[in-house]
């Protein structure tokens, strides 16, 4: 079985594949201060009796990746390991000005989106930031847009405005909030949906075609029903990309 690990700024998503099928997955907090010994205990607890035959990793947190490398050497020394970084064969041409700036997770999303839906496509990843990644009709990563994530925006409001506070992220009764809590919920959920819809429409206009918009990421479900432009929902897109890149490199 393949162990796929996607280390994000806020959460780490872990998945186990049997062939093409994702048989189990977990979402845990990313802690860049965790040691390799702590990670060994964490992964042993998560994986239980699963027999791992390979490991595929991408990370946007350099400090966390360093300890994860050490953990893999200790726990999976004799197994094939693919870590997505500059020089890794992904099959995704990167057509931005500086290809080294492209996050590994964005390249995995591009790879998986093109594999599942073809191109052109727009991947909307709702995580710490809201990433819109544009995939050409030939499967190339051509750039995109980055915006503050829902939780970051809410934290910023709570920290900078004396009378505002964190609220539960659920849709309010109506767009017009009848109180502070509902007003914040409306601004966060409907506001982000409107932001995404506006960007998707502008990207489609620039491409001159209807690119398939694919929602992914831990917060996608908050916005999916409120959006007018999102066509597909694949919560494990990055893990699928990690499976595909492992197959290309093993």
Please name the defining characteristics of this protein:
Nucleotidyltransferase, domain 5; 5-stranded mixed β-sheet; globular; 2 domains; 250 residues; alpha/beta
Question: Explain this structure to me?
Answer:
The strands form two sheets. A five-stranded mixed sheet has the order 3-2-1-4-5, sandwiched between helices. Strands 8-7-6-9-10 form a five-stranded mixed sheet. The two termini are 13 Å apart. The model has no long low-confidence stretch (mean pLDDT 91). It has seven helices and ten strands. The chain folds into two domains: 2-83, ATPase, nucleotide binding domain (Nucleotidyltransferase, domain 5); 99-241, ATPase, nucleotide binding domain (Nucleotidyltransferase, domain 5, 2-Layer Sandwich), CATH 3.30.420. The chain is of the alpha/beta class and 250 residues long.
